From TrEMBL:
Gene Ontology MF terms: metal ion binding; oxoglutarate dehydrogenase (succinyl-transferring) activity; thiamine pyrophosphate binding
Enzyme Commission no: 1.2.4.2
Gene coding for it: LOC112055393
Record keywords, A-Z: Oxidoreductase, Thiamine pyrophosphate, Transit peptide
NCBIfam families per record: 2oxo_dh_E1, PRK09404.1, PRK12270.1
Organism lineage: Eukaryota, Metazoa, Ecdysozoa, Arthropoda, Hexapoda
Source organism per UniProt: Bicyclus anynana (Squinting bush brown butterfly)
Gene Ontology, cellular component aspect: mitochondrion; nucleus; oxoglutarate dehydrogenase complex
CDD domains for the chain: TPP_E1_OGDC_like (cd02016)
Family: Belongs to the alpha-ketoglutarate dehydrogenase family.
Name recorded for this polypeptide: 2-oxoglutarate dehydrogenase, mitochondrial
Function: The 2-oxoglutarate dehydrogenase complex catalyzes the overall conversion of 2-oxoglutarate to succinyl-CoA and CO(2). It contains multiple copies of three enzymatic components: 2-oxoglutarate dehydrogenase (E1), dihydrolipoamide succinyltransferase (E2) and lipoamide dehydrogenase (E3).
Entry-linked Pfam families: 2-oxogl_dehyd_N, E1_dh, OxoGdeHyase_C, Transket_pyr
Biological processes, Gene Ontology terms: glycolytic process; tricarboxylic acid cycle
Amino acid sequence: MHRARIALQASTRTGNTERFASWLLNKPQAAAATVYANRPKSSTAAEPFLNGSSSAYVETMYNNWLSDPNSVHASWDAFFRNATNGAQPGVAYTPPPNLAPYSKNEVPLTSLVPASGGMPSISAGSPINEKIIDDHLAVQAIIRSYQIRGHHIAKLDPLDIANLDLGGKNPRKVIHSSYRFDEADMDRVFKLPSTTFIGEKEKALPLREILNRLEQAYCNNIGIEFMFINSLEQCNWIRQRMEPPNVTKMSNDQKRLILARLTRSTGFENFLAKKWSSEKRFGLEGCEILIPAMKQVIDTSTRLGVESIIMGMPHRGRLNVLANVCRKPLHQLFTQFAGLEAEDDGSGDVKYHLGTYIERLNRVTNKNIRLAVCANPSHLEAVDPVVQGKTRAEQFYRGDNEGKKVMSILLHGDAAFAGQGVVFETMHLSDLPAYTTHGTVHIVANNQIGFTTDPRHSRSSAYCTDVARVVNAPIFHVNSDNPEAVMHVCNVAAEWRATFHKDVVIDIVSYRRNGHNEVDEPMFTQPLMYQKIRKTKPVLEKYADQLITEGVVTAEEVKDVKDKYEKICEDAYNQAKQETHIKYKDWLDSPWSGFFEGKDPLKMSTTGVVEETLVHIGKRFSSPPPNAAEFEIHKGLLRILKARMEMVENRTVDWALAEAMAFGSLLKEGIHVRLSGEDVERGTFSHRHHVLHHQKVDKATYCPLAHLYPDQAPYTVCNSSLSEYGVLGFEVGYSVTNPNALVLWEAQFGDFNNVAQCIIDQFISSGQAKWVRQSGIVLLQPHGMEGMGPEHSSARLERFLQMSADDPDYMPPESPDYEVRQLHDCNWIVANCSSPASLFHILRRQIALPFRKPLILMTPKSLLRHPECKSTFDDMVEGTTFRRLIPEEGPAAQNPSNVRKVAFCSGRVYYDLLKQRREKNLEKDIAIVRLEQISPFPYDQIKAEIAKYPNAQLVWSQEEHKNMGSWSYIEPRFRTLLQNQKHISYNGRATAASPATGSKAAHNKELRNLLEEFCVL
Ligand SMILES: Cc1ncc(C[n+]2csc(CCOP(=O)(O)OP(=O)(O)O)c2C)c(N)n1
Ligand SMILES: [Mg+2]
């Protein structure tokens, strides 16, 4: 009985059970329907037609019948006859059909009322006995309590060591009963509320059976957290699939399939352990059921229409997933252990980080399926948003707007799932219109340990899955040693995703048989846990024994399946021995079929466009919606649109217009453009305004760039959640799916990119080298020293440059294709453009390249409105290109031999230098050369500029502090270029710990100093 009590207490927290009754008694209509007594076996009183108001009438009838059976209607005669002969409740009398039938799963409470005899009788107008009501309410409360809290008691842990630390106390002690049923109550029949499905077709059950079924559903090997979900429909959906008796029952065929899959999962790890005993592989031992579980999710999802599944997962069991879920050729996997050299370019990655992509027939559903496992770094959970972005992109390109064809599965370790903030960030993308992937199935391989740390030291929540509660995802905890329960949960999770298109979590509670990796000693830190593990039989053995006992398989069959798989492994092992090289290409997670084929890898298309296109885009971008009369735009915006139109008429562009023309011209060419980030629709600095809002109608918007040409590619501009790590990861994933798209992420201020540092370091800067995977993602990063303080000044240009992989001591030989060759060989492009035309071209160049490279772009703030920061159509029309370097074009260039100083610079400081030079009348003496692209370093063009000014000293002018900005990057490269014949000196702020001063006065002084120094000849 204690569980009933525990459950009860949860719903009767005040401990005052009388209150329920008095509450009900104040509602006469409810009271009439809620009658109860204590003798279920007493037949007459248990009849459905008996209720409080009719019992006096029945009594009269009964007395009449006793004196003369013919004095009553034949139906009463039959009823009293049956009842006195001991008919069971409900059998003595069958009522005529009800004109207003009860809805599903409903039964009038009166049908459960037993006859008097110890219990108070109910007569018309008599007060209803409070105990009757309370007992019924209590049963309902029990049911609800099981639904809410049953998971606390469920037997989830195969080791039986988990101590669910709910506020430091044992839940059984915290929850003490305030309501008791005795053994005598157990056979009393209670009506079931409509919020339970334990009865299946039964509408009432004896208390004993109610408790049994609740125990089975909620406290056995599955623990479900779902009652926090706001939707009643969704709660009922889960109850329907988890509560009916025997829901987890499997057919013999299903059982055999589980056994076969478990055999492979276990056999794979055993084989690796046998062949490479001291190699790290982060084996799955202890959670081998993960493989059949994933396959079950995939089977069910494919049956429900999914054709492509994108997966992200950590180290644990990864090789097993590649082998047995993706069916990656085993010999390819085994060659990874052989220490062979790679046949192709790149530096590669360790075997348990590599991705894969496979198209194959799902033999269970007989449907073709594409499976991709994304390559990922060691950084746990970092791949989550990347997978989501990739999934979203694939859905987008397939026109799968509801996620019916493409889905994601994310695997997690227990410690990482609870500990890594990016999990939360990713979860919060799950329901956003421009980021949703329409539901992810999360599977936690919960081995109850993170490296050497116990859960009680690695999280403050009861479960490692609590983060999922924020998005109302149901969470299924399941004991890994009950394979059939695991499979049931997997089916339900996949069906949930297909039905509601929302996230769902499967928490497979298991253990880790070895150390963190195969060479670690777990007894150092978890001695008791490992003593227990040593005594625990592998799940394959347990399940095989179970099926043998059940007569589903024979011991010979079990051995046969095992031997066959070992033979498969052995054959692959021998095949792997023949290989002489590994191929990184075999591990690509996003093949771009058709993109590279037939292309000259050094041939770039042009980036200038015909003037007509510029005019068309410019005009559309400067116009209100076609239905302008009804669409009321903010007056300030009308002014902005007017100013844009004037620029178009004058054949000039500012930053926003240049960006729009780059996007628009690509859209015209069929290139999808997606711009994402915090507040990007308007633009942090209110310069972009890509989405116009009706001032009177909620959510009525107009996006001019989406309506440029009837046959243009789709344009997406979307304000993101306030996340950098998650959102940038998402866009990286999006960008790797299809090379024919320009995908941009804009930081609110460049400073915030360091919150996404892991994505920058692990995916963007090094992704191609590690995983042969290219990405043309663009990072727009507002950057510039404008007196806004330490946190709104620097996008940390120096860090990006420091990660550029070009050798500072090596100047590539000059050639006609110098630019594209350098771009081909670099790991990313870093630029700090000063002119709108440069922005236009560099964005278009991303697509013009015959390959894809990430572009890190410092972008302006005040320059967005700077009157001199303009370009003309002449810089953008056909025949023009991106200028990596913009030479001096003023008086100094007319007479270069008279020039005494050449200042090289990059970005917005150019305009400060220009002004200063003008004011000091030094336009003939100082030449200013702008590096629009800093990395790869334009050696060839710089060399030409230096040669142009033979008598000038060389200086690098920057506004950033000396240990920041470009100085550390350009200085050694200038040295290489100048070969000790000349020297370049530094003109800029001194070194500093903080990127910028918080004092406006100090800022101005620093700027004055640098400009004065710039003028010193
Ligand atoms: C972001 C990050 N921090 C630290 C590590 C180092 N690390 C590798 S595995 C591991 C433990 C992971 O535990 P869990 O998530 O439970 O996965 P398990 O290894 O138990 O499967 C740690 C801390 C890492 N890989 N990534
Ligand atoms: Mg773990």
